[in-house]
Amino acid sequence: MTTARHQRPASRNPRRNRRGFSLIELIVACTILVLVGTLALPRFFVVESQREEKIIVAVEDLLRMFAFRNSAGLQQVSLHYVRSQGTLALWIMDLNPQDPEGPRVWQQDRLSNPVEFPEGFVIEQALVDTNALTDDEWTIATNPDGSRPRIELALRGRKKSAEIVLETYTNAPLRSDDPRARVLAPIDLHAEGSGYDPW
Q: Is-above-0.70 flag for pTM?
């Protein structure tokens, strides 16, 4: 007894066996990707802008700590910037832990954290009493007599930039882009003819 084997007839359309995306499926997928991109990209830029704003505020806080430590303590303090590492740190002239009886040495302040800049964020210009610091690594120190210089820092990132000024007579740095900030310029009353006027 012979049994007949039924073989499937070969498909007449060889394209039917291949599985792929139709044109409509591709259009729908691209539309979804475009919608997700338009919703996600603005948030990414807002996050980057907020991160740079936090860095600017951290630099302001470090300048405030620099001024406070100078006015409240007896030790010299300094700001130390290294562009290649992207850090701005507060240093203090303190006892050497290895040799407490020896001379004082510069070391990083233990009471403040250094500011670490994200990629693309730099101190573009630093002015100390109107003298520009042009190196990629610099230090701004207070004077041994307790006085300190006027400091002006120009910060630049991808989304934000700011200029921060720390005057010699105040402990609060001011941002030039803040509409509430007003830097007072000294007035020579004698030059204006008002030197002997009653107050």
A: no
